[in-house]
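Internal tracking record. Fields below are filled automatically when a chain is submitted to the structure queue. Please do not edit lines marked as system-generated. If the sequence contains nonstandard residues, flag them in the REMARKS field before resubmitting.
Queue: standard
Priority: normal
Entity type: single polypeptide chain
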Amino acid sequence: MAAMVPDAMSGVQAARDANLIRAEALVAVRAKAERGDFTHALSDLLRDALGSRPLLRLHIWRVEQAAFDNRTATCKRHARIAAGWCGVDGARAGSLTLAWLLDERTGGARLAAWLLAISLDMRDAHGGHAFRLSGPDPFAHVRS
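SYSTEM-GENERATED OUTPUT FOLLOWS
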């Protein structure tokens, strides 16, 4: 019996399918955010990602861009800050994925660090920081 050689086109089609899944997910996040449905914009994506290998490969900076319409540099800075707080080399910030963010071995610490990094940079209508921690601010040096 001859060994089965995978068809190269099936790999190409699988990559296209995965790219389409990721693109549709980001469009859905952006659409919910633009409707003001921030409650579900991220939570639905994170829930769906747990059962989807293509979604787990989404870069977290792209997810932030879709959800909050932040600039690429800002999104990558938030990823770098979260990585640093979690003991990961910040140079990898642009390649961190939802798989890294949702790794169950961390007990949600990476997700919490990423969301806190984003929150500390949010601005209110007057240009001030919308979210402040009570007491002394140990994160003042990472705010934009």
